[in-house]
Amino acid sequence: MRGKFTDFLVNMPLKIGLISDSHSYLDHTTCAHLLEVDEIWHAGDIGESTILDMLPKGKPLRAVFGNIDDQGIQDQFPEWQEFELEGVKIAITHIGGTPPRYAKGVKERLLSLQSQLFVCGHSHICRVEFDRELHCLYMNPGAVGQHGFHQMRTLLLFDLDAGKITNLRVVELGKRGKMNP
Predict the structure, then answer these.
(1) What is the pTM of this model?
(2) Peptide bond preceding 181: is omega within 30 degrees of 0, i.e. cis?
(3) What Cα–Cα distance (Å) separates residue 10 from each residue in 2, 80, 93, 165?
(4) pLDDT value for 181
């Protein structure tokens, strides 16, 4: 069946839930926000693989391993994810640094890929910044887990729509150390 309704569905933006640094902790509050997305991205330091079973079912997961992840996680996910989605060239790794002080080799890789969106974790600090030199949006969602020095647990929600990143929101999940059911 073709018509206005099906045309509308084809042009819907893709909703992304971006998390990082769960360090073997995932709560109901985090999962509730991820119920609303089309894809879940995890920027590393997953921790126990059982965390992946807690994520909402039926949603594609794009993830990378982080420096605390064991061999089982490393066998399941790469160190880098590079892909194009909804017209946006995306690169994800765990340890990426921050603009303009990227980790060794990251800047060169982003330039060669012509990435428009670079996602990393590791710092536990939520930060979104446009790098004018690379013409690339940098995103670090902070940490959803309890381990680390961060004060507030955070994640990012955004849409990919016809080559654009839109509707970006920072979600505060509660203070680190405060356990949610």
Answers:
(1) 0.91
(2) no
(3) 11, 29, 30, 17
(4) 53
